[in-house]
Amino acid sequence: MKTEVPGINDWHGYQDDMDAHYAFKVFFGKTLAEMQPWFRQSVIERTDELRFMPTKAFQYYIFALRDYIIEKNYSEDDDDCAVDCLFNLVQQKINSDPGAILPVIDELIPALHVIAANVAMYNINMDIYGSIPQRLQLLLQSYQQLHLPS
User: For the whole model, what pTM was predicted?
Assistant: First the structure.
């Protein structure tokens, strides 16, 4: 994981995309810790902004979402939604933008395992979000497919 807050060069191209520009306005210059209240305000919006930010910024700020969940910074009514946001985002990046997620996924996988092993702690409603352990297995299978020779 990159430990320095992304600089302006890490946001290259943000001006050309309305969603990336908004993400820049929210995230630019902030540490992972400084982003925690922003995730608490709206984890769904912050996750959506992560989807659209330039790769280098994404590779730093994905850990703000991870920390939001693992460090239990979420509100009681937000825990299951936050977990769903993280799993959806990682799966989406594996499927559509592997170059953005592959450099950092090995650092995210331990947190995904912790979450999947502690579903009750996160109040996951399986009727809404499905089985988190099964989603983790699917995510890991997708990741492994990227490493198979063609």
Answer: 0.93
